[in-house]
Design brief:
Layout lengths: L5 H18 L4 H10 L13 H15 L3 E4 L5 E4 L9 H18 L15 H14 L1 E7 L8 E13 L2 E8 L5 E4 L3 E10 L8 H4 L14 E8 H9 L7 E5 L3 E8 L3 H8 L5 E5 L1 H18 L2
Antiparallel strand pairs: 1-2, 3-4, 3-7, 4-5, 5-6, 8-10, 8-11, 9-10
């Protein structure tokens, strides 16, 4: 097998997980058959995955995603994912499998490409893989970054703590020598290199807890508040099927409206979500947030009344 790039290896790992997960139990011969048919990843048209490569992938998958691929002698040497039900509980592993499974399917179904439309994430392809590798190996990153509100770019070292995707953008939470933990948009990175300098992850840091009280990526760490909104009945189903935040609770339902309550930080992204529903949503409390939404609506009205 020819040497694969980091991005190709990453795709191959997720392809193998998806192949085994979808089958439930699958023999090595069946895996090789599927690999031989995968023209997007198997560019050399190999009839089988080499033995050493296959086991290297299994070890890498366990290291990167904490997914254990086991072989059952009782089932004739079939491979399966240990505790596969964990993948059905959501989180990054499920997202990776779903995303790459669809991507692989599209690549294999060339005649359907025009009939399958998706939203492009412009920043993930180039920098996501080295960031994940740096997090895995606890290596500092040397990054050249140009923030949206800066006149020029700057180069500095950061400790990558986690990555998060939101609204077609990948973000990295990292810490530099001069700042506390900061969220960086991957599409604003101009250059990135993994160094040979190691760092230690804070033992008490939990990425999920860090972003637990917010929508999106801004204002993490601020004190959450109770927020109450009223939603028109014809829009309430949207909120029920796709909650704005995990704290969402529907406390009242009538023929005309529903009341939803949240416990979160009312940050920029949350307010943008509310604005996207226009007049179908009204903030009831806190009053400060209601006043902010009203003032911003009046500013928009002024633009169209000129």
């Amino acid at each position: 097998m020819a040497k694969q790039s980091s991005a190709q290896l990453f795709r191959s790992y997720v392809w193998l997980v998806d192949t085994i997960y979808t089958a439930g139990h699958i023999t090595r011969a069946e895996i090789n058959h599927k690999w031989a048919q995968n023209y997007s990843l198997n560019s050399l048209h190999e009839s089988a995955i080499p033995e050493r490569t296959f086991h290297n992938w299994i070890w890498a998958i366990q290291d990167l995603f904490q997914i254990n691929i086991e072989c059952s002698r009782k089932l004739g040497g079939a491979y399966y994912i240990e505790d596969a039900e964990d993948l059905e509980r959501g989180g990054v592993r499920q997202w990776l499998i779903n995303t790459f499974a669809v991507n692989n399917l599209i690549n294999e179904s060339h005649h359907l490409k025009r009939q399958i439309l998706f939203e492009k994430i412009p920043s993930g392809q180039r920098f996501l893989t080295p960031i994940i590798e740096a997090m895995r190996d606890k290596m500092l990153l040397k990054m050249t970054y140009h923030g949206y509100h800066k006149n020029h770019s700057s180069t500095f070292m950061v400790k990558p703590y986690c990555v998060k995707v939101y609204r077609q953008r990948w973000y990295m939470l990292a810490q530099s020598e001069k700042t506390d933990m900061t969220v960086y948009a991957l599409d604003r990175i101009e250059d990135l290199a993994v160094t040979d300098i190691t760092y230690k992850m804070p033992v008490d840091f939990n990425p999920e807890e860090y972003f637990y009280s917010i929508v999106g990526v801004s204002d993490a760490g601020k004190k959450p508040k109770f927020v109450t909104i009223r939603v028109n009945s014809w829009q309430a189903n949207y909120f029920r099927s796709l909650p704005l935040h995990h704290s969402q609770e529907e406390t009242e339902c009538t023929d005309e409206y529903s009341i939803f309550k949240y416990y979160l930080v009312p940050n920029y992204e949350f307010k943008q979500e509310l604005r996207s529903h226009g007049s179908a949503v009204q903030v009831l409390e806190p009053q400060k947030l209601a006043d902010e939404m009203k003032m911003e609506s009046e500013e928009i009205t002024k633009l169209y009344n000129k």
